[in-house]
Design a protein that fits this description.
The chain is α+β, with helices and mostly antiparallel strands. The protein folds into 3 domains: about 110 residues, Periplasmic binding protein-like II (D-Maltodextrin-Binding Protein, domain 2), CATH 3.40.190; about 130 residues, Dipeptide-binding Protein, domain 1; about 210 residues, Roll (Dipeptide-binding Protein, domain 3). The chain is about 30% helix and about 25% strand. The strands form 6 sheets. The chain has a 5-stranded mixed sheet with strand order 16-15-17-13-18. A hairpin with a 2-residue loop joins strand 4 and strand 5. Helix 9 packs antiparallel against helix 11 and helix 15 packs antiparallel against helix 16.
């Protein structure tokens, strides 16, 4: 009897430890703004959004396009795409998903009352027709190179938002209903967010019952949480990897390192008179030692960025090299533009306090001083920076970063039409030749011809210096070794999180 009691007691303890371990702890360093896929333009919002919503199609771990909300898709011809939707999908409130939701999402994205930079891809569509509750036909105005990829945009619920008067300020943006693997149960600015597994998720209920996204604006706080094993997945800085982790840390965490799909840059307000002179922009570029940024900030775990598209893709132009620091030439160009020691070139650089922005800015300030350039710094909390500086375009220059897509689309950042309100071209870049090439590439479905056009765009943008492209860092991700199955991938280690199990017992 005693042995039976002990076995039962041991089993109960085992199960309680096992069940309590099924919480995934993550961290974000900036406040999410809107948990709505068509309005989420910052990484913090997007990170939470991806747990809650799904798209018609997605990428698998090898970056192949696969169905998600759709069962299958087919091109009837070069301009006609048909989606056949899955029948077994429910929104998290129990309402069935249907083609009505896809049509509503499309109509919302292209609405003139919605300010979303993602609308650009949908302007190439002539019509979206609902053939029945589970079939949609999309007709394009012409062959479009991203006819399929734009449908990686997550879908919104028509039954919740169909009568919404103002989506931009809707309560939905902080209490969303989705079809995804998790349901948002706790959300507040500057606090942790909590997500619970969706028991009716159409693939299967996630093995991890809960996700807690810890709000840690100080990156050192995230590192301390990692060291104390209170976070399961996190990122390391090169300094932490090289100097601050020990044998015990390596025993607890698996480390995955690869080139990141993002770059840092300094962007100029090209509507500001002082930056309209190309000689000034070139001088600022020549005053920078980019390799020094890689070495100091990243301990060599990164590379100098030479332009706007991801290395290794067909759009990348390998013939373009980053300019080497040349202080003498920088000074000469500034003198030609009317600046000298008595009348130095001065400007203010604004950046976010999160990440490495403030450290990068200080190094740049030191480098510019060698060329007689006076750069003042303005470092702000992320949301304040976004809402009071970037979006209203109240800046001389900004230090920021962009993600690099597997399939680049230059329109949203580099086409002059995207400089309108809500667009990503907030620096005001206008180049008629670039505009023409972008539009030509949009109708080019032949991959080799598309690559040639994008390599020309790459060249023209780097010659104009609207941005000073700085660094592509390496992504260093650590994952609790008690989580499995985890594998590296071109789209990151979290490609199969609904299958993850955690065994902290």
């Amino acid at each position: 009897m005693y042995n039976l009691f002990m076995k039962t007691f041991t089993l109960i303890i085992f199960l309680s430890l096992y069940l309590s371990a099924q919480t995934l702890h993550l961290a974000i360093s900036s406040n999410p703004s809107r948990i709505n896929p068509i309005l989420s333009t910052d990484s913090a919002s997007s990170e939470i959004t991806r747990w809650i919503f799904n798209a018609l199609i997605t990428y698998d771990k090898d970056a192949n396009i696969i169905p998600e909300l759709c069962e299958s898709y087919e091109f009837l011809d070069d301009v006609t795409l048909v989606f056949h939707l899955k029948h077994n999908i429910l929104w998290s409130d129990g309402v069935p998903f249907s083609a009505k939701d896809v049509l509503f999402t499309y109509q919302t994205i292209i609405s003139p009352t919605i300010y979303t930079p993602y609308a650009s891809g949908f302007t190439h569509i002539d019509s979206v027709e609902m053939l029945d509750l589970f079939t949609l036909k999309v007709h394009y105005k012409y062959p479009y190179f991203k006819a399929l990829e734009i449908w990686m945009m997550e879908i919104l619920p028509e039954h919740i938002l169909g009568a919404e008067k103002d989506l931009m300020t809707s309560k939905f943006n902080q209490a969303p209903i989705g079809t995804g693997p998790y349901i948002l149960t706790q959300f507040a600015i500057s606090q942790d967010s909590v997500l619970q597994a969706n028991p009716n998720y159409f693939i299967h209920k996630p093995n991890l019952d809960k996700i807690i996204v810890h709000y840690l604006p100080d990156k050192s706080a995230e590192f301390l949480m990692l060291k104390s094993k209170k976070i399961d997945v996190g990122s390391l800085t090169p300094l932490q990897l090289e100097r601050q982790i020990d044998h015990e840390f390596r025993e607890n965490y698996a480390i995955y390192e690869d080139i990141a799909h993002n770059y840092s840059y300094m962007g100029f307000n090209l509507n500001n008179e002082k930056f309209k002179n190309p000689k000034v922009r070139q001088a600022l570029s020549l005053a920078i030692n980019r390799q020094e940024l890689v070495d100091i900030l990243y301990f060599g775990h990164g590379k100098v960025c030479t332009g706007p598209f991801l290395p290794g893709t067909g759009a990348f132009n390998a013939s373009i090299v980053a300019p080497k620091q040349d202080i003498a030439k920088a000074k000469a160009l500034l003198k030609e533009a009317g600046y000298d020691e008595e009348h130095p070139f001065e400007f203010e650089l604004s950046t976010s306090a999160s990440g490495s922005g403030s450290y990068s800015a200080q190094i740049l300030q030191y480098q510019f001083a060698k060329a007689g350039i006076i750069m003042k710094l303005r470092v702000m909390e992320w949301q304040a920076f976004l809402n009071t500086v970037v979006m209203p375009r109240h800046f001389d220059a900004v230090l920021m970063g962009w993600s690099l897509g597997l399939k680049p689309d230059a329109y949203s950042i580099w086409h002059s039409e995207s400089s309108r309100k809500g667009g990503f071209n907030f620096i005001g870049y206008h180049n008629e030749t670039v505009d023409t090439l972008i539009k030509e590439a949009e109708k080019t479905v032949d991959q080799e011809a598309f690559n040639r056009l994008y390599q020309k765009i790459f060249t023209l943008i780097t010659e104009d210096n609207p941005y000073l492209f700085l660094v592509i860092p390496n992504s260093i991700t650590v994952v609790n070794k008690n989580i499995s199955p985890v594998s590296s991938s071109i789209i990151g280690v979290m490609h199969n999180t609904i299958d993850w199990m955690k065994t902290d017992f």
